[in-house]
Amino acid sequence: MVKPSTEKSNAQVCRLRHYALLACFLWTSFYLALWLLNGGIHIKQFQPPRPKPVPQNNSSSIMSAFDMGISDEEWERLQKAIEWPIPDQEITRLDQSTSPVHSTFSIMGLKESYKVGEKISVAITARDHRKNLKRYGGDFFKAKLFNAELKASVYGEVVDHRNGTYSVALLLPWEGQAQVFVRLEHSSEVVQILKKYRDSSFPRTHFNGFFEGSGPNKIRISEVVECNLKWGADGSWSKGDCCCEYKDIKTGTVWQCERPKKLSCDKLVRHSGGRLENPLHLFEQQLFTKKLTNVAINGDKKIINVLPNTSAIGTMEKCRSGMMTPVPAGFYLKDVWKSFVCNTRQFSPAQMANCLKNKIVYFMGDSTTRQWFEYLERTVPGIKRMDLHTHPAGGPLMAVELKNNIIVHWRVHGVPLRFSKVMPIIDLHYISNDIDEIAGGPHAVVVFTYCAHLVFHPITFYVYEVAKIRQSVVALLSRAPETTVVIKSGNTAGLKNIYQSDWHMLQLDTVMREMFRDIDGVIFLDVWQMTSCHYLREHIHPGPVIIANEVDMLLSYVCPA
Ligand SMILES: *[C@@H]1O[C@H](CO)[C@@H](O)[C@H](O)[C@H]1NC(C)=O
Ligand SMILES: *[C@@H]1O[C@H](CO)[C@@H](O)[C@H](O)[C@H]1NC(C)=O
Ligand SMILES: *[C@@H]1O[C@H](CO)[C@@H](O)[C@H](O)[C@H]1NC(C)=O
Ligand SMILES: *[C@@H]1O[C@H](CO)[C@@H](O)[C@H](O)[C@H]1NC(C)=O
């Protein structure tokens, strides 16, 4: 960098910079206006600057399986499981990306009528904004079959043929009519961007650390600084000896906060989620616009007629650990989820109390397990929340029912956690550490989720944390094999942007499922399909109908029929 030698040249540089900025602004505005005039799509001239390289080091590439605490073979297996095709080239024009307007679906060989239990096959063709067929895969489509009057729906898995075509097999599980619905959640071009920033060390999220203690004249003072995860060779967030470091002795996870000016490092007492930082440049942002995100695509709207069949579909198998989640995992009919994993049932309030008699339920993780806590609190007759003098959204929370000796706990997982509530940092416990402190036994039901708050961090960190949780679960099941251990998967969410995306969640879910695949005695309660195909608008906090079905499923495992 050339240093200006005099004030005059400094001023000139400044003026020049102003002109440059102004020119840049005008240029951008002009083309943006042109782009909008063209319906935001058909435009050849728009040639934005080539994407910048990721600002910092690629932290996943410098973490080894050893750093994550797993074997090389396992890391290879995990990478294979989360492999997702992305464009085979660098995208420089918006019109090269997949268009929800020009992509279509059709039902293959549609018949006059079907029988319950049959399947239909749907073909999706992806096209770009100039109607050209896409040549590569990686688009994130979601597909379902539904009937609004019957409050019925079922999820379909989209198979990527990696040549711009996709197919979906949809089961016809109910009698009556049905329609296909397909949406493009993200183009493969967006997935490429999501992947790039997840694997980079760009801090999309920041956190606040609240320091409190005695200042110079014994007056209690407070200071707020930024904090973040320390992960990767360079610490990923802040470099050098900048910070106070907090290493959890058992998990080895390192949290760091900027050094406060007056107080010492040991005075960190509270925590909250902080600002978000957008790494996207202008061109990348255009790929994420609302018009291109989570949009229904055109296709066969024909009504499918489904006639009854004499044999009933579904499974009578008892719910237990180690069951695989098929596709579909079940379906909704009149808002009741009928599972194909195992024989789930609906619990009346009295049956819920009976099922939970003499149980201690430990809910851990995030607000989605808090929703389960709150549902039990609302539904189990006579259950009461104790006042633990904590914030109702942040917890920890506890509810008891004295007649049947039921205790229900809820607590959030450790940092990184993006709760906006300012919480005592001492109340944020790593799931693995808490599991280590549970004796377990037939009365203990341990339920955790670990997903929604981890989408901001490299997947290598997630693997590291899940490996720690796995160690603790294995130890728990070894000392008390009769303990019920349930992993609640992540659910789909309303936001679909660079911060939070279902694509991220799906990747983390896949890692969690794979890492627990061979652990006997663990129940993986997969709510992905339940939250993806329901008629309610997707939300990180699914609506009450969905939560009721999720908890019925949980209780079906605790008290199998
Ligand atoms: C990236 O990582 C390499 C090797 O770990 C290191 O030498 C380099 O200084 C890092 N670059 C930045 C910008 O942090
Ligand atoms: C980061 O490293 C991983 C693993 O080596 C690689 O697959 C990925 O493409 C890299 N990402 C970027 C943005 O360089
Ligand atoms: C319909 O029921 C019969 C037995 O009653 C069974 O053999 C057949 O597979 C069923 N069809 C479908 C599509 O499930
Ligand atoms: C794409 O791949 C599928 C599966 O291999 C194949 O059936 C189909 O013909 C291919 N389509 C195109 C357009 O290449």
TrEMBL record:
Record InterPro entries: Ig-like_fold, Ig_E-set, NXPE4_C, NXPH/NXPE
Highest rank taxon of the organism: Eukaryota
Residue ranges constituting the NXPE C-terminal domain according to the UniProt record: 337-559
Alphabetical list of Gene3D superfamilies matching this protein: Immunoglobulins
Pfam families: Neurexophilin (PF06312), NXPE4_C (PF24536)
TM region positions: 20-37
Entry keyword annotation includes Membrane: yes
Entry keyword set: Membrane, Transmembrane, Transmembrane helix
Single biological process term from Gene Ontology: nervous system development
Keyword Ribonucleoprotein recorded: no
Similarity section: Belongs to the NXPE family.
Protein's UniProt name: NXPE C-terminal domain-containing protein
Species whose genome carries this gene: Onychostoma macrolepis
